[in-house]
Fold this sequence. Notes:
The complex is a heterodimer of chains A (270) and B (127).
Chain A: H1 12-65, H2 74-104, E1 112-115, H3 117-135, E2 138-143, E3 150-153, H4 154-170, E4 177-187, E5 190-199, H5 233-243, E6 248-252, E7 258-265
Parallel strand pairs in A: 2-4
Antiparallel strand pairs in A: 1-3, 4-5, 5-7, 6-7
Helix pairs in contact in A: 1-2, 2-5, 3-4, 4-5
Chain B: E1 3-7, H1 11-23, E2 27-31, H2 34-44, E3 48-52, E4 54-55, E5 58-59, H3 60-70, E6 76-81, H4 86-95, E7 99-102, H5 107-123
Helix pairs in contact in B: 2-3
Amino acid sequence: xxxxxxxxxxxxxDLNALEARLRDATTLIADLKARDELKTQFLSNISxxxxxxxxxxxxxxxxxxxxxxxxxxxxxxxxxxxxxxGGRQLLGMVSEILTYARGAANQMALDxxxxxxxxxxxxxxxLNEPLCARKGVTFQVDMxxxxxxxxxxxxxxxxxxxxxxxxxxxxxxxxxxxWVHAQPWTxxxxxxxxxxxxxxxxxxxxxxxxxxxxxxxxxxxxxSRRHHGTGLGLxxxxxxxxxxxxxxxxxxxxxxxxxxxxxxxxxxxG
Amino acid sequence: xxxxxxxxxxxxVVDAMRVLLESGGHDVVTAGTVADTIAQVRERAPVLVLLxxxxxxxxxxxxxxxxxxxxxxxxxxxxxxxxxxxxxxxxCLEAGCREVLLKPVPARELMAHVNGWMAEAREAxxx
Lengths: 270, 127
């Protein structure tokens, strides 16, 4: 077997060439980092600027819908609901891009307080049961008796749960089931709560398990895809969970539903 | 009629807020900069200020600090922000905001809030 060259045994010319390539690579990395920061800044600015006219559109439509300028007919009301729902959906996507941009720029801070898991699950039930009922999907929420209080940023934790439940409902056909379960979880002497958001939907092939957490990536990115979005929801959810010191992962196979799990540290006692 | 000052630098949002508040019977004045805001508080003595934070010549909170220290009658100030950020919320409350609302506040909800604050000011004899 031939001996490998080490830097000490390289001829001077080769060493100089290597050093030059190293310098080029360092410059390239610095350049790419600067461009990445510019991209993040652009995303942050554009999403902020998009929110402003959207705010005006939604407010005007709500003024009309609520009859503040006089009565509206049922058909006009249907149309106004369409404008408001579309506007709020767009606003949600724009906010998602803004949240991502903040995270990428390390501008995301946690405001941790003790949070009762049963409160979170009750809210999840209230928000999602009507949506599931409309779609003909069964929604189940339960938790073990001994689930501790968690130490978390309430809004961000609610965001993670909403995102996972929203995905589960979106990818589960009528007649299917979506469930949320919380239980105590202990790893390396850390007390945590493990949340499970599961569904009987279309499932995710194992080769796509990494992809779904990548920013802007979607399993089906074709223009004719049935499910639209920014491709940032799971990236943000995972980042929120990791900011808390927890983990978010998926277990799924194509055609057999999905189970997303995440952990959140329990409140420190004593 | 009791005056509401809408501080916002985007004319589309100003128009929407004006239509909303005037439909509720409020007298609306507007300001698009920190300097305008301070001048309007001094001249029109609003009961309520709905304050955008990002203005061309500075932060809405700078305006609040200025008029809170000098106005003869201190208006109720409510921050309207596009940022859902606990740090920013804390900063607004510390600067003297009564409440921090995330834009766009649903029209009906905002009107209910505004009516509540105006009633409160009336009871206190400010409106």
